[in-house]
Design a protein that fits this description.
alpha/beta, 22% strand, elongated
């Protein structure tokens, strides 16, 4: 059973996270302080950490640095600040992902599973699909070595598919995984638009896509030939 450490000073959030994670068969340990979190990492075998940026005794960025000096554990930042500068700072430090509070449980679980899946593949943080590369550490996409400017949502959709080659994702599954934090969601028609935009940016011929394939009547997949 995989073990997740929750570092969050708000008790209601910790309790909710513990409930959802245990329902997904994770073992959960928790703490409200940075000092205790560092001790737990030293004493226990932890597979992933959910780390709040705003802690009472130390900010999450400092905790991240101290933990990484001890063990190389996947870390997802929990933040109430969705400003781009905060997100970029966390990713530049080497965080595996971030999620903005309040968040949907299903989105968090999806992010956790994606990070664990990536970490289980070793240190390779780059996905290659023909002439397109996804650098997960930088959260960037390159085509023929040139940086492709994707929106956060476009990147998330592409990453969901790229992490699961040859797996067909129904439109409903994709929508569930990108459900937004304000209880609105990307509807079916909007998803079609996003897929079209992604193809325009990464495919040689968007009208005959070779990377993101349409499985008629079902959804989409990244082809195994990639």
């Amino acid at each position: 059973m995989l073990k997740i450490l929750i570092v969050e000073d708000e008790e209601t959030i910790r309790v909710g996270l513990k409930y959802y994670l245990e329902a997904e068969n994770f073992e959960v340990i928790e703490t409200a302080t940075a000092t205790d979190a560092i001790l737990k990492v030293q004493e226990e075998s932890v597979d992933l950490i959910l780390l709040d940026i705003n802690l009472p005794d130390m900010d999450g960025y400092q905790v991240f640095d101290q933990i990484k000096k001890v063990k190389d554990i996947p870390i997802i930042f929990l933040t109430a600040n969705d400003l781009e500068i905060s997100i970029v700072r966390g990713l530049d430090m080497g965080a595996d992902d971030y999620i903005t509070k309040p968040f949907k449980a299903r989105e968090l679980i999806s992010r956790i599973k994606n990070v664990l899946r990536r970490s289980s593949k070793g240190n390779d943080s780059v996905i290659t699909m023909k002439d397109v590369k996804i650098d997960m550490k930088q959260a960037k996409v390159f085509k023929n070595g040139i940086d492709v400017m994707l929106t956060a949502l476009e990147y998330k959709i592409l990453l969901i598919l790229a992490l699961n080659p040859n797996v067909v994702f129904s439109r409903e599954k994709i929508l569930a995984d990108i459900w937004d934090v304000n209880e609105a969601y990307v509807n079916d028609n909007t998803l079609t638009v996003y897929i079209k935009r992604i193809r325009e940016k990464i495919e040689d011929n968007p009208n005959e896509p070779e990377i993101i394939e349409t499985v008629r009547g079902v959804g989409y997949k990244v082809g195994g030939s990639c």
